[in-house]
Specification:
Order of helices and strands: HEHHEEEEEHHEHHEHEH
CATH class: Alpha Beta
Shape: globular
Bound molecules: flavin mononucleotide
Helix content: 40-55%
Largest sheet: 7 strands, antiparallel
Mean pLDDT: 92
Strand content: 15-25%
Low-confidence stretches: 8-18
Radius of gyration: 18 Å
Number of strands: 9
């Protein structure tokens, strides 16, 4: 009995960091830059330094993508047809302070991360994306994926169009939040859907990849 308990404890201690959720710091609701300046300065960035991102920066970016901004109604940062929220957002972490490399799922309901897979998959993700270097260079990538049926179940075939429009809204939020934080990103639409889905171990449809980091140009 004692042996069983020790075994259980060891298994629990070994497994719990992998299945445990990572609480993210609360996002800031006050930026330091004017929106107009951010819109005007936003550019696609494809060369990144290897400077790690902080958990605060990651928290802010994910909140901008899909964070809950109206807890009474569970409405999020980006508009969604019928408030059906067909997207699942994944964080591909390569180099960050306070968090190990891995694939994480963003959970808007409690602004936390759930580990999906351990290890740095940026090289594989780059290979699944026509070898686009930004993906491997950037310390993190945010992958927007969709479960179409959440929206097509209500709106029929037209729902597919709505899902794609929503990916655009989310993407622009990521672009603007990155620019406001002094970071850069690029919207990546060119990748092999099946390869990306199997790398992330997901049934959802990957729509967009956003590498995010410090622009190499700012550090030259
Ligand atoms: C739907 C979509 C897909 C894109 N796919 C890629 C891509 O695979 N690789 C890339 O380097 N840029 C990609 N881009 C970024 C565009 O090349 C970029 O927005 C364009 O050159 C204009 O530059 P700007 O974003 O700095 O204004 C994509 C943009 C959109 C909207």
């Amino acid at each position: 009995m004692k042996g069983f308990f020790v075994l259980f404890l060891l298994v629990f201690l070994f497994i719990s960091p992998m299945v445990g959720a990572v609480e993210l710091p609360s996002p800031s609701l006050e930026g330091e830059v004017d929106l107009e300046k951010v819109i005007s300065n936003r550019r696609s960035i494809r060369e990144f330094s290897d400077e790690p991102l902080t958990l605060n920066q990651i928290s802010q970016l994910l909140w901008a993508a899909q964070g809950i901004t109206d807890p009474d109604n569970n409405f999020r940062s980006a508009p969604s047809a019928g408030a059906l929220y067909p997207m699942e957002v994944f964080l591909i972490l390569g180099n960050a302070e306070e968090l190990d490399a891995g694939v994480y799922r963003y959970k808007p309901e409690d602004h936390s991360l759930e580990i999906v897979k351990e290890g740095d998959i940026r090289g594989d993700l780059r290979r699944a994306s026509l070898g686009q270097r930004a993906i491997e260079q950037a310390p993190i990538n945010i992958v927007i994926t969709a479960e179409y049926t959440r929206t097509t179940g209500h709106y029929g075939a037209r729902g597919e169009r709505y899902v794609h429009m929503e990916a655009g809204h989310i993407g622009q939020n990521i672009y603007l939040q990155a620019a406001a934080l002094g970071l850069g990103t690029v919207a990546i639409g060119a990748f092999n859907d099946g390869d990306v889905a199997s790398l992330l171990d997901i049934e959802y449809n990957p729509l967009y990849i956003f590498p995010v980091g410090y622009s190499q140009e700012f550090n030259d």
